[in-house]
Amino acid sequence: MEKPRSLRSRLKEGISAPMGEIYRKSRSVLLSLGLRRGVKFVQPKEEQDASGDFSVVMPIFDSPPLARCLASVERYAPKAEVILVDDGSILSETKRIIKEYATRNRWITVQNESSLGHSGATEAGALYATRRYLCLLNADTIVTPWSWRAAQEAFEADAKIAVTGPTTSHATTVQMVRRAELCRHYWSDSQIFGFAQKYVQSQPSRCWVDLPDIAGFALFIRRDVWERCGGFDPNLRHYGNEVELCKRILKQGFRIVWTRNSYIHHLGSQSYSNSAYGADFIVSSSQNAQNYIDRKHS
Predict the structure, then answer these.
(1) pLDDT reported for residue 275
(2) Which are the contacts of 294, defined by CB distance < 8 A and separation ≥ 6?
(3) Which end of the chain is more exposed for a tag (fewer CB within 10 A), N or C?
């Protein structure tokens, strides 16, 4: 027979979740001082022009922040070639959003009848790319006015740089800024752009940091290198695909760098619908992927 819980434990259970949310919101308010809502930001011309060198490939499976993500791409990737891959989405709202943005901007759309997973959907979209560089972008990101020029500059400066990635709010690599991570779900777009502007302007130009791999939320890669490597390992359907790809690229003598003077906001764990891919799935898939990578590259 289950032991009765004390009144204290029941009360604690009842208030812990809402109190935790109150604490997180209060903390975000303090960390957001100086970042105003409702401010309009003008993208520098060099950033607008730089976006024209990229094919943005975005796999989509009923991602909750999709409309917010596509709105940022529409606004701050004005010259990019955008390829949206509907990876077997179920919700009619997802399909409506994709159609609305693709039609208005003449973006390329790819329809998978059933889900191929992140790797397969990315591969399907990359086949349509024509620009020199790819940006493999998750659907739970928010592109800022300072997203493109740093990657373009790195690629142009050193032919050995094959992969770059921006600063962000959520990643398993050192690309993450802690302040942004704590506030990533609470900031408005205006506050995100305000933070991005201040952070990027505080960094020197060409402040590149060599890393063993780049977080997959926004991975910039030379298209010829992507094609030469054969893209992602098909055995890694969702997780670890960018880590394994970077290992192969490093073995070929290329560099992988974090461009600190660029910023793309990452909400995290929302690029594919949580109703289909929950926390347990993410944890087990990530561990299985790491085991596979360790065996393959041991």
Answers:
(1) 47
(2) none
(3) N
Residues 128-158 pLDDT 10s: 999 999 999 999 999 999 999 999 999 999 9
Contact 138, 58 (CB under 8 A): yes
Distance from C-alpha of 267 to C-alpha of 142, rounded to nearest angstrom? 8
Give the chain's count of helices (H) and strands (E): 11, 9
Record the tokens describing residue 248, joined without a space.
């192969």
| CATH number of 92's domain | 3.90.550.10
Strands (E), the chain: 54-60, 81-87, 108-112, 133-137, 141-143, 161-167, 208-210, 218-222, 255-266
* Distance, C-alpha 100 to centroid of its chain: 22
pLDDT tens-digit map of 33-73: 889 998 999 999 999 999 999 999 999 998 788 999 999 99
Report the C-alpha gap between 122 and 118 in whole angstroms.
6
Mean pLDDT rounded to a whole number for the chain: 89
Rounded-to-integer distance, Cα 51 and Cα 48, Å = 5
pLDDT of residue 11: 42
Residues of the chain with pLDDT under 50: 1-2, 7, 10-14, 273, 275
* φ, ψ dihedrals at 209, nearest 5°: -120, 120
Total number of domains in the chain: 1
Task: Let me know: does 79 contact 109? Beta carbons within 8 Å.
Answer: no
The pTM of the full predicted model, rounded to 2 decimals, is 0.89
- Asked if residue 7 belongs to a domain, the reply is no
Q: Is residue 204 part of a domain?
A: yes
User: Is residue 12 one of the residues assigned to a domain?
Assistant: no
Q: Is 4 part of any domain?
A: no
